[in-house]
Please model this.
Amino acid sequence: MSDELDPGVLAESFAEMLGAEWPREKAVAWSQAPALFAEPLWEQMAALGWTALTVPEAYGGLGLGMEAAAALHAALGAAAAPVPMLGTTLAAALLGAAGSEAQRTKLLPGLADGSSRAAVAQPGDMPIRLDGGSVGATIPDMIGAPAATLLFLRGERAGRPCWLALPADASGVSIAATALTDATRTLGTVTLDGVTVDEDALILAEDPAALDDHLLRVAAIAIAADAIGGGEAALAGTIDYMKVREQFGRVIGSFQALKHRVADHQAALVAARGLVEHAAGLPDDAPHALLDALSAKQHVTRTVAEIARDCIQLHGGVGFTAEFFPHIYLKRGKLNEVLFGTRTILLDRIADMLEAA
Amino acid sequence: MSRTFDILSKVGDEPAFRQEIRDWLAATVPADWRRRWQAVRESELKAIVVDWLEERRKVGLATPHWPREWGGPGIPFAYQIIVYEEFARADAPELDMFTISLFHTPATLFEHGTQAQKDRYLGGITQGADIWCQGFSEPGAGSDLASLRTSARAESGHYVVNGQKIWSSAAMHADYCLLLARTDPNGPRKHDGISYFIMDMKTPGIEVRPIRQITGEAEFAEIFLDDVKIPAENLIGAEGDGWNIAQSTLSTERGLLIFGAVERLARSFELDGKEAKDGWMRDVQLRREYAAFHAELQSLRLMIRKLLIELEANPDKASPTLPTYIKLIWGPFLQRYTEFLLRAEGIDALKWQPSIPGTGHSSRLRMNDFLKSYGWTIAGGSNEIMRNIVSERILGLPRG
Model:
């Protein structure tokens, strides 16, 4: 991790650019007419080096760690930016941890400069049998697949888990988009029909279970960061509204019944941010690195989804309309809750780790 | 005890300091202290607590957070944190009865007291076992403390005090009281005209009645004041300046007490899961609920550590908002977690047992801890007041 870049300074520069390039009006307009991803915004991010953030320096990246990644994902969550950054962060982690030299040289520079967009399979996805011959498989509900140029799929060869890196336009690969309520991300079913898999497309980890845990930790931190950014933005926007909306001759923000709810939300977000920053700041091999990341993910995504829900109610009638922003954060928040492990799955894993401690 | 301990000489070497405290605690705190303290009668409680204070004094840890000029060991804040952390880890008894003596009295006297007041009263804490209490709240002045009505009328050489105080922790054991009373009933604002006094609890006209709590214990009391004469030299600061003085010394514990309390809960949380391994941890629903509390507990520990780090870097200028958030999160968390344990453990958790003094909020008597958790959401500014502070002073929402 670089000592020269302060995550706080990074966060400010992320927020500044997104505030100018992806203001709330754009987020609202996008939610009503979404495309696969905001291409101009993605290109600007790439030009500023954001897509290169966690890619190792030797492969065209900036070589920063999870603290920087968390700052970026929090800023993207705050803006509800429709960009496939999660795929880039995960693919960089996967290749960095287990890719061969040839795979890194081939794939990482494209991720770093934004010309490649990745989709990475989730922990529960059924592995693809790779025991010779051409491959056929269906992987449902792959996050980011419709916007991706590169797919990272779970495989299994001779009973041993591995990963498979395929171009999204490879022969025999098709991706059918499934509409999501969260218009800022995409979901798709990937079908492989008679796909030839070359040896150099296989990513073979020395310890597949450890690789899974590493990716789960990275995903948990990135998603928790996205959530906290979104929660803070949704609440701040709601408080702004409560300061101007008048009923009974007074601004509604003066009503104690509403103020007290907002105070609790604010305290919950301050506590939640601490969890994200702490989890992101731990080295990957710290004793509780995974436990703290999963705990942060389940708690922060849950807390933020609940706060986003109340932001609809606190807005009243306009909160129910598509023209106001709260629904965007609620929908993004609900997706964050289930991505890379629903809360119950994570809680079972957390309980296992607490028992083993 | 086979060896002598010199904890303070290890300042400058954190691991050695920590190890020396651990060794001393292991050699000094009896494994069955909880059972012994639980069995003690209320009339004998003070004696057993003072014994523990004396043990701590032998190694210079009676007043570990006191600077040298107060007569304390003057150890850096980082080492004070270690002391509290190790006491929590070892489940050593707490000194709740001495909270005001150890924190508020020295802070108040050092900031606002005369030299004569410091000379006269601080020694009773550093060398003796003087118990101080606080006479702030009144039946009609709780969250709205500034509306207090206890009066102090100036006469020649003394004040005559009349009124009633309530929620005074340890008042029935106390030697002295830090008293707020109104010297001028006609101040422009209700905060004006309040003065701050040292009151000797042996003065005629004082009656103390313990208040039985919902836990069955009596940790605090009502104080009835009937023509109590307080010498004029016992006024702290200027007449009418009591409100400002009280405000400036309310947060003297600098996060150390809540840090200790949360670290104790963290230790207890770990044990709760382990001890239920063949019990409720086999129930998938309860196991998940338990796992969910981990994040909340962690978030509290992180907030408190952040506060301590800020205070260590700059004792006079810590974040003014963090303590408010911590209070707002900690009490309700403790309530929900202790309530969870009641549900998880079923009827066993509801069987009556005498409470265990010195265990703070982690006695591990489930119903007691649950009931006691309301202390955190009501005392020291109820959480409803905290919500007003967050929404109005921090978030800038207008007053209703």
Q: What stands out?
A: The radius of gyration of chain B is 22 Å. The beta strands of chain B are 132-135, 151-155, 158-169, 176-182, 194-200, 206-211, 220-231, 235-236. Chain B has three domains: 8-94, 106-240, 256-394. Chain B has a mean pLDDT of 93.
